[in-house]
Structure formats: C-alpha cells, structure tokens
C-alpha cells in the first residue's frame, strides 16, 4: 500500500465538540499532535456558517484522513491538500491540517497520518459535492503516488481512475488499469467498527492481530475454535447473507461485540469460509439447546441489579456458605460503583438542568414557546416605552420655540440661576466632606430639572430603539429560525457536557466493571480458587484497575498455555511414527517393499 485517503462528513446538528476533541484533545492516543494550518476556532466557525444559511445543510464539516506507507514531507502534504481542493472546489486556505503520530501495527507503515477539515459550505455559498468521492479519492492517490514516486495500492475504483486519467495522464491511467485487474485486499475491520470498539473499550487492533497469528496454518474448525476461546473470542453467525444463502461467520467477543468476518480477520478464501460456516452450523445444531439457554441466563445475571431475594438464592451455586456471602458482597459493591458511574455519565448540565431532561424535539418546542413569550414581552415593553416617551414630549411643549422670546430668555435665566445654585451647593458639600464634616456629595445634584428631563427622555428613546431593533431582528429571522438556533446551541452544550472527560472516563470504567463481573461469574472460565479469591478481594477493595489488569494477565496466560499445549501435541504426533518404526522394524520394512 502507499497513499490512502478516507473521508467522513460531520453533521451540523452534532456540533463541533466531538471532532475538535478527537483531533486536538487526545494526547493519550497519540505520541505527537501538530497543527500545520488553521486552528480549532476555524472548525467551530464551519458549524456557525452552516447554521446561518436559510436552509441549514445536513453536514457542516468535511473530514479527510491522509495516510501513507512512505513518510510524507510537509510540502507533499500541502500538495495533497491542493489536489483535494482542485477536485472538490474549495479554497485550500480554508483547510485545517493536523498531524497525528502514533505507533502502527506494521513497521512498513508510516507512523504519521494527517487530518484535513474543510467547511462543507463553500465561499460561493454552495454545499461541497459528495458525488463519486471514493473514485475521486483513488484518482488523487494514484496521481500523488506517481508524482512522489511511491508504490501503488489496489482499490475498488481503479477502473474509473483509468478512464478519468486516460487523456490527461496516460502513465497514471496505465498503472490504474493494471491495478484494476488485481484482486482486492480484504480489510480486517472498517473505520466505523474501529470507532465502535474504542467506545466499548475493546482493543480491536490487538485482538484481530492475535486471532490471525494464532490461527495461521490451521484448517480444523475445532482447533480454530479452541485457539479463539483462549483469547476470549468465538465464532458465530453474522447478519449478512452469502451467495449460497448461509450467514457469514463472524468473530465476536464474550460480550457479543463483533470484530469482523472470519474471512477478513483470518484471511481465508471463499471455500475455507464455507467449510467453517458448515462446521459452525453442525456445531450449532448439535448444541442448540445449550446455546439457546446460556446467553439468556448470562444476560440476566449481568444486567440485573442485585436484590435481597437474588442475594439470598445466589450462594446455592457455591456449597461453601462463607464464599457465597463474599460473592454477594463483591458483586453488590461493584454494582454500586456501576450505579455511581452511571450517575456521573447521566448527570444533567449544571446550567441546563431542565433542558437536559428533555428530548431534542421537546427542546425545540420549548425554545419556540420561549421565543413567542419573549416576542410578547417585547410588544408590551414597546407600548409602555412609547407611552412614556409621548408623555415626556407632551410635557416638554411648554419649553418649545412657540413661546415668546421673552419667556424663553426668562426660562434660560432661571435655568442658569438654578445651575449656579446647584454648583454652589455641590462645592459647599464637597468642602465639608474634605474637612471631614460630612459625607461626599452626589454628582447628579448639579443637573437642573430641565437637564434631568432631557436625560430621561434620551434614555427612554434609546431604550425604545433597542426594543424596536430586537423586534426587527426577530421579524427578519423568524421565531422558528431563532428557536432553531437557540435549540442547536443548547444541544451542543449538552452534547459537549456528555462528552466531557469525566463522563468518558466513567463510561469506560463502567464497561471494565461490567466485563469483570461477567468474567468472575462465568462458570466456564475455569478460574482457580486463588484467582477467583484475588479478583473478589481486589473488587471488594475498590481496586478496579488492578482487578482488570489481573483479568488480562489470566487471559494472556491461558493463551500462552494453549499455544504451548498445541505445540506439545504436534510434537507427540510427529514422534509416534518414529516409535512404531523403532519397535516394529520388520513390518515397516515389508510395507515399504510392498509399496
């Protein structure tokens, strides 16, 4: 493989929180994070830009992932962005480019990959096209590989690349033609499946790699099943039908999380997958009754919260009374911890408690109701302020220019005398205050009654203008549009609150405890008394991480032991013919002569 480009589209209603946190705020998942161009604000602005459109688009941000076998320079990365910009008609300066560095499974793959985000709403106001994006990605990859001198990869759309570049770039077209005739590689799992596994605290990369390594060169269904069992995995029927009508066999964890198909993970051809499917069908028919009962009972044990009745009957499986009491105690303690973690995850937003309890539809209805209420309040304020202003203007008429000139002069003189008197009183009070004989004077006392009247009138007119402006904005945008914007803002805040580090840590720990309870209570696990006692003791002490590490050690030890037993069995099988030849040389010799 060489250059691979993948893309996802981030929905407008989901908000920028998740994508920003995924790209910039997870140093624990990456050895290094570097921003080459743009910033987090640019990504947030893409969502604001989408929401301001009259018809809000479904998607606000396009997210590309650029990876390669060979290590790329910054110049090559920027050239790749230019290619994407030319194909999808966006301005490359609008792109945010982030480099992630992390350890890869294979040494042949570069440990660096790049995330490129661009607003879906382009500079011309149109939404970026998503037509034939897979073919466009492969076309860009083949052209870049040719330009950079990289190796090439077999893809699904190389035939389309061949025709698209036939006239413009014949050399790339010829390469695509050869690749189109090559068989497609099978992927172990999809990007979506990888993200689902991460959220479930499952290391899908490690498990699929171990499963493939452990089952290499083994064709027996029973042996494959035994090897997978040592890893806590099993084969079951999937949901997709094959050409012959049978269901595709898949590999899943004990909790039922499907890692992928048997063919994709173990790299088996169609005939081998058919053989495994038939063996699975025979095994399932032979064990139908047992398989139908066990999962139901297990799910009831794991999901139900312990009650006094269940606690009293649970120790019947264990004939030692003391051990039954201990099992009740550790299980109750772990369930209490799970309830505490669930409360953390489901805690409402501190500033949006009522909204957190609502569905998104209920929030939208509530926002519309609030906007209608605000509009009615604005109308009342408008009418009241208008009456107050008219009253002020009416009282002002005695000072207007229709008065005689002499009256106007008298009024000005009277106001001047009042001003002088007020200033004198203010100065006197200020002097007394400086001498410590009184409090500080009020600065507003220097204003005359006429000045106070003018100030009040101007203030009311200014307040009225603000109300009228707000009314105009509401009329222009529309109540429903304003309500939609308010609802989206609340949804983003609640979504960011749910995805806060504390909540993510709680749900991750919740999953660990859930699997730990299942592991301890599973009778088929064949735990030794010491192992079970240590797991229970760690659980009772609240040392969940240590218990989880010990559980992992047990599984790894079983895996190593299974590998060792398998190797010993193979050695014994190789040794038995030699024993026969040593004890019975004559029959062996006669058999060889007969042949």
Automatic annotation (TrEMBL):
Residues 547-595 are annotated as: Disordered. The lineage of its organism: Bacteria, Pseudomonadati, Pseudomonadota, Alphaproteobacteria, Acetobacterales. Residues 547-564 have a biased composition (Basic and acidic residues). Keywords: Coiled coil. Residues 358-402 form a coiled coil. This is Mobilization protein. Residues 565-579 have a biased composition (Acidic residues). It comes from the Bacteria.
